[in-house]
Amino acid sequence: MSNWDILWQARDEFWTGFLNTMQIFGLSITAAFVIGCFMLYLLEGRPSVGKLSLRVFIDGMRMLPFLMLAYLLYYGLPTLGVRLDAWWAGVGALAVYHGCYFAEIFRGSRLVFPQGQIEAAQAHGFTRARMFVRLILPQIVMQTRPLIGNQLIYALKDTAFLVIITVRELTAAANSLSGTYFIPTEAFLVVIGFYWAVSIAMEIIIKQCGRFGARRGLDHA
Amino acid sequence: MPDDTAVSIHQLSKSFDDVEVLRDVSLEVAPGEVVTILGASGSGKSTLLRCINWLEQPDRGSIHIAGQRIGVDDAGKRMNARALARVRAQTGMVFQSFNLWPHLNVLHNITEAPVHVMGKSKGEAQTHARELLDKVGLSDKAQAYPGTLSGGQKQRVAIARALAMQPEVMLFDEPTSALDPELVGEVLTVIKDLSAEGYTMVIVTHEMSFARAVSDQVVFLDKGLIIEKAAPATFFDTPSTQRVRDFLKNHH
Amino acid sequence: MNASAWQMLFDGAWTTLWISAVSIAIGVVAGLIIALIRLARIPVIDQILVLYISLARATPLVTLALFIFLSAPTLGFGLDRSVAGILALTINTTAFNAEIWRSGFRNFSRDQREAAMATGMTPWITFRRIMLPQMIITSLPGLINEMSFLIKGSPAIAVIGVVDLTRVTNRISAVTYEPLPPILVACALYMVIIGALVWLQRLAERRANRLAT
């Protein structure tokens, strides 16, 4: 039996790992997106102590390796009496970490948002929250699309770190298979292929969204 | 080929996509002569100038700089980069947008090519550069960086940079078009001084009174054709074509 | 935490720093070389490099480190853990650096290149004397940003047993049974390292903007 036959017979293990990675990725990136939007909303308006501390928190996260945050949640939190299993610690860490990156991406775009539009909305009697959801957020998300796409790929790659805190995702599957059958080269090539395919699919989707946005005149693609 | 001309252009043609920008253009520039090229925008005058040092490659025709053919070697093949660079070193070019190198100070902008192309010693190149800066009235700016200079000062540095190669011919591509009106004079004065010193120059410009004062020969291009070639007095006072009369009326 | 725990943390930080520094040094130069080769648009080689860049950018560092460290023996050569770590980080960062350099080339002012050619400079002299010095200045902010990303990705080498600043926290808590303090100190050390890079990046940006005016 060739090495590839062995891998084919173990395809269920890859598939389980892949699905697990996609679940972790899908759940955490959705949460991260919401967190990013929410942080942006919290940063609206005049500067205050609360906003300043949020900025410090966001900048702090961006100066930390993702794995350190996962360590904090997985190994550190039990000291404070909160015990998360590895899977949830991983999802939570990804969501908070990439939420901060999203917030920073949005903030950069918010800084150059045309003030005239906001004044027009105020003149039409929009409330702060409504104006944010209906007017500011959609435009900022469309404009920062390429950066969001990059961040998605970073987040996908960060899921692999979770093998270190014992989550049984895609890289863990390759690791255990290569240990069992001693065929690391083939096992990891397959897994790298998975990551590659998902990255390319995401790039294509982001580009398609760009066409949609250009049709609606939301940016100058 | 005549060896006593500074620049000799023979039946030059050039198209961009389907548009013919130069059609059978021939022109000779004698040593010490100042030729200005006039024409409406899009008439091909900048392209003609850029062909002279092969920044644009003509489709047909030939160009000789001081008797040496540019772009094509003796065997009729395209010149390699090194040979082309050697012929280009015989020409000095001044661009509309100055194109100084921002990472080098004024002195090094001027000495860069003499040192690294001609192989001059640094000391010799710097002495020459300071003389040239003196000539263009910027001796106090040797250590300044381009970003700190006005447009007129940048262009005078660019002229000094081109002169530093001691070229057979100086090419000026609309040297004052990117300048604020009050800075045009200082650059034109420098170019006039050069013509008085006997430099060979080909100048593309929109400054009519300057062209009249400085030129030995005026060439008028229209849709890629030379339709008038005359001494400035004849060209400006008694033009022979209606096209030139219209052009001059609009530019006074 | 006692003195030996602190010592271990600083040793871990040192390991992270030197392994990252070696990878960065190789990666910046290799990225430039790849960018130059890609400019030449040599058939087949160009496609191979495009494939490499695309794969290297999509592959998680953890996966890459495991792949290199576990595959090497089956291909007939064993790799030291540190060497495998450096190799993984370098393969990753080179791909990103190649793209940074390449965009530096593509955005280089055509006018300035023409001015160089008009003075009789050969393409090589133009590259060395006019383009490269400016491209270093304009690409530096991007390159430093990529260095921050490399440091943030460097804990991946913990997976193959390199005792870096991340893994050392496991070692310490295995003895003290108190994981939080070493993790917090490690976080602080990472922030100092990456904070320094962010600060350098800001300086580099200021310098690049000065050049642009």
From TrEMBL, chain A:
CC annotations in GO? ATP-binding cassette (ABC) transporter complex
In terms of InterPro entries, this protein maps to: AA_ABC_transptr_permease_3TM, ArtM/GltK/GlnP/TcyL/YhdX-like, MetI-like, MetI-like_sf
Q: Which UniProt keywords apply?
A: Amino-acid transport, Cell membrane, Membrane, Transmembrane, Transmembrane helix, Transport
Is-annotated flag, keyword Cell membrane?
yes
Compartment(s) where it occurs, according to its Swiss-Prot or TrEMBL record: Cell inner membrane; Cell membrane
Q: Residue limits of the ABC transmembrane type-1 domain?
A: 18-206
Task: Please report the record's description of how this protein sits within the membrane.
Answer: Multi-pass membrane protein
User: Which molecular-function annotations from GO does this UniProt entry contain?
Assistant: transmembrane transporter activity
Mark the transmembrane ranges.
20-42, 54-74, 86-106, 187-206
- Single GO biological process annotation from the record: amino acid transport
- What family is this protein classified in? Belongs to the binding-protein-dependent transport system permease family. HisMQ subfamily.
Name of the protein this chain belongs to = Amino acid ABC transporter membrane protein 2 (PAAT family)
Automatic annotation (TrEMBL), chain B:
A single GO CC term for this protein reads:
plasma membrane
**Subcellular location, principal:** membrane
What molecular function terms (GO) are annotated for this protein? ABC-type amino acid transporter activity; ATP binding; ATP hydrolysis activity
What domain of life is recorded for the organism? Bacteria
> Which InterPro entries does the UniProt record give?
AAA+_ATPase, ABC_ATPase_HisP-typ, ABC_transporter-like_ATP-bd, ABC_transporter-like_CS, MetN_ABC_transporter-like, P-loop_NTPase
- Which ranges carry the ABC transporter domain? 7-248
**How does it sit in the bilayer?**
Peripheral membrane protein
Subcellular location, record wording: Cell inner membrane
Name it.
Amino acid ABC transporter ATP-binding protein (PAAT family)
Please give the organism.
Kushneria indalinina DSM 14324
From TrEMBL, chain C:
Family named by the database record: Belongs to the binding-protein-dependent transport system permease family. HisMQ subfamily.
Q: Which UniProt keywords apply?
A: Amino-acid transport, Cell membrane, Membrane, Transmembrane, Transmembrane helix, Transport
Q: Please tell me one Gene Ontology term that the record gives under cellular component.
A: ATP-binding cassette (ABC) transporter complex
**What is the native source organism of this protein?**
Kushneria indalinina DSM 14324
Show the stretches that span the lipid bilayer: 12-37, 49-70, 82-101, 149-168, 180-200
Q: List the top taxonomic levels of the source.
A: Bacteria, Pseudomonadati, Pseudomonadota, Gammaproteobacteria, Oceanospirillales
UniProt-recorded name of the protein: Amino acid ABC transporter membrane protein 1 (PAAT family)
Q: How does it sit in the membrane?
A: Multi-pass membrane protein
Presence of keyword Kinase: no
**InterPro entries, per database record:** AA_ABC_transptr_permease_3TM, ArtM/GltK/GlnP/TcyL/YhdX-like, MetI-like, MetI-like_sf
One Pfam family, short name = BPD_transp_1
UniProt subcellular location: Cell inner membrane; Cell membrane
* Top-level taxonomic group: Bacteria
Molecular function GO terms recorded: L-cystine transmembrane transporter activity
